[in-house]
Amino acid sequence: MAADKPIFILGAPRSGTTWLGKTFEQHPDIDCWYENNAVWSWGNSRNANDVLTEQNLTPKIKSYIKKRFAKRLEKSGKKYIVDKTPRNCLRIPFLHAVFPDAKVIMLIRDGRSVINSTKKELNKPKGIPWIEIRNRLKNVSFWEWYTLIPRVSSRLKSMLGVELDFWGARPPGWSEWIDKYSTQTLLAKQWAATMTIGIKEGRKLPSDRYIEVRYEDLINNPQEEFTKLINFLDIENPSPIIDFAKTTGDPNRINKWKKSLNQNILDEIKEIMEPTMIELGYSWE
Fold it and tell me: What is the CATH number of domain 2-123+163-279?
């Protein structure tokens, strides 16, 4: 059953996961489920952070998640289901316990680009996202609306033009960082902690279940890199995916951080980020 073998797109928020999801969505046999936090946090929504392991999984929770995926795939009429929930970067053991046959794509991006993009997200005023609200409520039963409260709170602040204290994945320690560190240090710690946990747990999975791919490589060499990715996923007829990637990937976005992050900020975050950057194959210089 295809619902028992979903594809997970993981990575730090603002690392290109939405673009990758939209790229896969061009395939006629693929349905992409975005920001599926209400389903994944069901039964664990009051946890202090977003980390989930197999110890957080009960038979009831497992049954609920599997039923939701089966229902979603049946309704879509597609062959494959792709889940794009960046917070799941902190939940790989939990995901694997629910779906041991799933395939995981860990999307990696230069942390300085991620910080630059997230920093803009924190203070970017937004209108009322009616379509997003409708889609989220439609996918969550009335009794589960409480799982959306944190998201609603951040949205209200954005609509009022109030800068957010925090946004995205919540690794251990996140709440203490808010009052203790500057915005850029907080974001650096968020990225480093999220990616460190993600790659540590991801690399424990069998090699035919887990793959790491760099955002920059997908943008600069879509034909070769997406071919590797599609072969890993064993998907037929890759042309719609590759064609979309070629026409939408923007190489100019790769180094935008160089114009936005001044030397003082880079000096402040280097010690926090550089070890993880090196682990992921990036050079700080």
Answer: 3.40.50.300
